[in-house]
Known about the structure:
CATH topology: D-tyrosyl-trna(Tyr) Deacylase, Chain: A
Distance between the termini: 13 Å
Number of domains: 1
CATH superfamily: D-tyrosyl-tRNA(Tyr) deacylase
Helix content: 10-25%
Radius of gyration: 15 Å
Oligomer: single chain
Shape: globular
Strand content: 25-35%
Structural class: alpha/beta
Number of strands: 5
Amino acid sequence: MQRASSARVTVEGVEVGRLDGPGLVVLLGVTHTDGPDQVAVIARKVANLRILDGERSAVECSAGVLLISQFTLYADTAKGRRPSWSAAAPGPVAEPLVTATAEALRGYGLTVATGKFGASMAVELVNDGPMTLLLEA
């Protein structure tokens, strides 16, 4: 998760998601053991961590969230020169959990934009701080 002053994601040159103004960019990786419990924990943390201006949360600031699925967060680079992606959940498992995370964040009253699951995306952002946090459920 990154605190950002602005961000956008494009697929094949077409903008599919945007964060206007201060908010959060969440790069979400899903592994095989993730499920609804992890969705709830991550959504609660993203919505309520007090990392925005004045030590306020996204909920307190009505900040936007740009949520991007990113299986590469589960890359295993321990051996050789080619990462293994075996720890990342396959699309049919991961996509519903990414969608559920977006919906859970909306349940907190947040405006949530997303990328396009499984697409090659270009993500542009202005990291505010810089502030980057690793959240785990």
